[in-house]
Write a structure and sequence with these properties.
Blueprint: H1 5-16, H2 28-31, H3 39-47, E1 56-60, H4 67-80, E2 88-92, H5 103-114, E3 123-128, H6 136-146, E4 150-156, H7 159-169, E5 174-178, H8 184-190, H9 213-217, H10 221-230, H11 234-237, H12 244-267, H13 272-284, E6 289-290, H14 292-299, H15 303-315, E7 319-325, E8 338-342, H16 347-351, H17 362-375, E9 381-387, E10 390-397, E11 403-408, H18 423-431, E12 436-441, E13 446-450, E14 453-459, H19 460-483
Helix pairs in contact: 1-5, 3-4, 3-19, 8-19, 12-13, 14-15, 17-19
Amino acid sequence: MVIDEKEYILFQLSEINPWWRAPYRIQNRMLDVEPRPYLNLFYPHVVSDIKNNNFAVILMGPRRVGKTWLINHTIQKLIDDGVNPKNILYASHDNPYLSFLPPDVILEYYKEVTGIDYRKEKVFAFFDEIQYLKDWERFIKVLVDNYPKLKIVASGSAAAALKRKSEESGAGRFRDFLLPPLSFYEYLLLIGEVEPFKVVPSLGKNALVQLPEKYHKKNYNKHLVDYINYGGFPQTISIDKDNETDIKLVLQDAVDKVLMKDLPSIYGISNPLELDSFFTRLAIRTGEQTSYENLSQDTKIDKQQVKKYLEYLEAAFLIKIVDKVNLDAKNYQRRSNFKIYLTNSAVRTAKYKPITENDPFMSNMIETALFAQHFHNPKKQVYYMRDGNKEIDIVTRDYDFKVSSATEIKWSDRVATHYEDIENLIKFAHKHNLLFAKVTTKTTNKVDFIQSVMTHFIPAAVEILAQGMITIGLMEAGEFAKQMDINKNSDPA
């Protein structure tokens, strides 16, 4: 029997859009999963226009962080908000029957199946894994320009390629949205260890001190170790932690496809094994100060190639380079030294055995996990201070370059009784007129005034949790939508 290709494409579209038929909703397996809080940040981009101009939303993010789940939850929210389910199209370009089809052709098949004319009616079209389609940005741009009633969301795991092509070809027609790995707050939310929590902007910079006492009293250390080892990817949460093999396969798949497939195809890397080896070295040294020269010497890779690899890995959102500032909180003129952090601590487990609570390297992983929460906030400028033998682990600045916070990261309770260990922090706070400073501990929670600086000794797990709450809470309050100048009066239907 010969199968008609067009007939099978129409069948495939019907199958992957179950909301076109009763009970007019996304699949139960999607409904059973709690949406990430980022749904509240992403949704305004989908239903709104910026300055009354149509634009496509480019949803980017590392592999396996839940982009397809976010799309499905967005679709369900559109339906709940009154959008006709047949006015919503989903197509994935990793589907072998759709991968070679440009979006305009898919839209014509969609019109044939549903009877909905995207030229005349408001239609929401989601094109998943768009990076598999050659010249995808050209097709999307034409649709945006010619069909104002058509709202397009394109997503993909090759974040580096999507961002580069979006910037090169978008010309105001594309709006990027980055979905990061799970924050510690989201991880605890998904495993049922915290309640949904909304931070209000009035809490300001001292929001951490004013978190409900129940968060400070609970010991989250066991969950923090699990989060560091496995927690950045939603899929690993449902796997039994004793089943290391299955977890390792998920983590390795997320990392290896970026290193061995995505980045080589985007940048023409001729030796992906060298890139993989280079990243493996970075994963075990996350949080350590280094330089281009040191990395070149350690890996036997040319310094210019080291710079390129770092650029590629940062574009793929696998690492984040953090620059140092001096005692005046000013940037050095030349990037001579810097720190490199994994943006998702669980990536380390893809290359090495899970870390234990008492591992000597645990302090670096605590630092990595805390920095990762800060990376979720696109407005925050995060640095470390080093001047001679003086160092502060985290320094944040406002956009007027004024220091807004200083934090010393410890994985020990000793610091809560030996104040000489944080002498640099107190001097730095005085120099920049900070009334408040933070020091993480293993379990100790207390506030003390040290030379007139209110110093909060707080368990590292609670500080990491709080930063995730604050970032998402402030975003939910409308700060992100305001930043993006979204027209809130747009009608989603």
